[in-house]
Amino acid sequence: GFVKVIDFGLAKLNGVRNADFTPHSALRIPHSMISHSTEPGVVMGTVTYMSPEQLRGEGVDHRSDIFNLGLLLFEMLQGERPFQRATTAETMAAILNDEPPALSATIAPPLAKLVLRCLEKQPERRFHSAHDLGFALETLLATNASGAQRTESVALPQPNRWRKRSVAAVAGVTTLLALAFGLAYFPRPAQQAEPLRLAINPPEQATEFDWPAISPDGRTLAFIAEVGGKTQLWARTLSAPTARPLVEVRDNLPAPFWSPDSQFVAYFEQGKLKKIALTGGAPEILCDVPSQSSGAWSRDGVILFGNGPAGLSRVSANGGMATACTTVDTARADSGHYSPTFLPDGRHFLYWVSNPDAEKSGVYLASLEGGETRQLLSRLGATNVGVAVNPANQNQGYLAFVRQGALLTQGFDFSRNQLVGDPLRIADYVPAPIIFLAHFSLSANGVLVLQESEPDQQLTWFDRAGKKLGTLGPAGHYSSPRLSPDGQRLAVSRINSSAQSPPANLDDIHLFETASGASTPFTFDPAQDQGPLWSPDGSRLVWTSKREGAANLYRKAANGVGQDELLLRSAFYKSLCDWSTDGRFILYEELNPQSAHDLWVLPLTGEITGERGPWCWLNTSAAEFAARFSPDGRRIAYQSNESGRPEVYVQAFVPGAAAAGGKRQLSTNGGKAPRWRRDGRELYYAAADGKLMAVAITPGVDLHFGTPQPLFAPSGFQVNADWGYTLTGDGQRFLFVTNAETARVPPFTVLLNWMTQMKQ
Q1: Cα 231 to Cα 229: distance, rounded to the nearest angstrom
Q2: Helix H segments across 584-736?
């Protein structure tokens, strides 16, 4: 055998400043090896492999090593050193001042971009760490192996030529990095690629990390994150170590989606559809949006978005007046259209049709040119569907969708617009959808991003100053909490979800004792039961259940004795709002195909004009939500987006009559979820900035409302008024659904090469 000595390089003592060296003195050094001893204040190393800061005699760190590695990688790829010149002085000057030459056109562009980033003159513009560089190489490896990000063929050097090029550099690269580089540069055949699972962590100190939207080219992820109390739309290139915020978003349901060229992100905010360039700048308003769902952007510059009961609307990507694209078929009891997704031809699209019949509700195929629609999928757990193209065959692709809590994919023939093969389970669990939208996104070239878990929530008590007083019950997933009239019990919707049993990803009503925290389930039906409402005497509960497909109203004794009794059935989605203190009326909202969310009143006695049926109290082109009777039953407070954003209004209520006149806006800068104090002398609502506001009320024939005053914003907790909150009758304590203190915001999961699991 042979004994070989390997040069491991030069050691550096951190904290020593090379203050006595200048670039001018460096240019006078005649030898390629400047020094053979490691001494402070002396520049050392092989000139052709030195970074600019080394040549300037400045302090160096690990980013200098990244520059050195970039030099080696360039040489391995190109067969020559990027800054090599005739003399040492010229070489040093080139490192300090010249840009590296372009790599050969035969080199994959993503790999060339990675190498050139290593060779940035300024250390802060390089990869921040070897870990970041390793992640970029791993991503490049994964995407090249699947063919997901290869947009052109790459001519590989012949093996003999490769060996000649790399011999001089291999000694300077560790075995691990050489292996990672070799795998990334020489992509394996697609059939040998293995599925890869990567994690994308939230920004530091984020309390919310949601709405993942991967760009069509699979390179950039847009998402919503809340950091320091500010909710923003963020973007992160998958090969980059960190994300950057694009714009602040004052909306809980922005549902971002991408332009087909991956250069713009569109999103919804307070009744507007907006877009913003990936490079930043001010957002541009495209059109008004009566009700939010999600959108899709075609290659021909057409944007579709769901308008619920009004069907799908279309608008130019340059902005303008939105026009109807689909019409809800009320004759067959359809209640709304949601979640459009374009197919690759840019003309056909998929969308969700909501119907009380589970077999009729599902994903349908339609065309911008009109014509008949056709159902493709039914019995899904969310309205959104992802579409990807098979890189090996442009006429074939895949649909991704949620069924029974699991994420599935199934083959799709674009030439015939038909499903092929059987579904394949890709992920066992995706969190329960928000406004019908599940937490996943699929790029056109097959990069899949999803949430596989969600942070726990907590029922948290606060006083009027925002001080945390304690919690009620265990951590879990809650919504719509309601205190009983005597304040001794709480009814709340609780999601029964777990990765071990994804089919149970549905709400049930639970009752808690406020003193002990003990809980008991109240509903047991396998369908979704939510939105509980106490009778004024606390003896009964009413709630919404989807056991018959549509969301109908049911009631039962609060002690749990007896059977669930159907109270009201209709074709449209319903959500409970309030029960008048005299017990005569139930107030609820209904999602109507013709007029979005309307407010209805259900009389519980026959004294109103001799009828027992409900009547529509408020029907406008705007959406009305979260209505509450005043304690004296003479007024209703509610939330409406008629001004273009949610605001709180109060209007007179006359039994048996529709709303007419006497309306007053209480909120001044956005507001939602109004609540009355039991004595009627104060009203509360959630402002757009998350603060809980209070409005003093002076009773009389004509109520006098004071100026809204902030009470508190729960510090250190993520609070969403749409999750619901409740308060004690005296207005001294408030129970919010918050994030659990011990909850860790989970990362997104990125799945690559999952197509190799599909049977063609």
Answers
A1: 7
A2: none
